[in-house]
Design goal:
This protein is of the alpha/beta class and about 120 residues long. The protein has three helices and eight strands. The longest helix is centred in the C-terminal third of the chain and has 13 residues. The mean pLDDT is about 90.
């Protein structure tokens, strides 16, 4: 599904397209799990599938010090373990869990609003 792109001087990275198994960020096709913020793109995030997700995968997200994390869990919404959720909530970082398609749409909206958002998107 093509996403609406509204350029803003405050944001360098926009999700421009989503399809199962891949997303496009500023036209770059990415087929692996990724962390994206309005000003950073980390293409080497390691959980290939939701089942691979553990607390250590939250470390690079925590380092970015966002207000809210949008966790895209693949084609379906899956809630992470309590331990994973606590790793963010203990640091006053909000967590929204949704399927990856919904996380992509929500990321663009929050980025447009100027929010300190991180989208952690599991593609597989």
């Amino acid at each position: 599904m093509k996403m609406i792109l509204e350029n803003s001087d405050a944001a360098a990275y926009w999700i421009t397209n989503y399809a199962p198994g891949r997303i496009s960020i500023n036209g770059q096709v990415i087929e692996t799990s990724v962390i994206v913020t309005p000003d950073r793109l980390l293409c080497d995030w390691s959980p290939g599938h939701f089942e691979d997700l553990d607390r250590t995968h939250m470390d690079p997200i925590i380092e970015l010090a966002p207000d809210v994390v949008l966790l895209g869990t693949g084609q379906r919404q899956h809630f992470p373990s309590r331990d994973i959720m606590l790793s963010l909530l203990e640091r006053d970082i909000g967590l929204e869990v949704m399927d990856t398609h919904s996380a992509c749409r929500t990321y663009n909206i929050l980025t447009h609003e100027g929010r300190r958002v991180v989208a952690a998107l599991i593609i597989g």
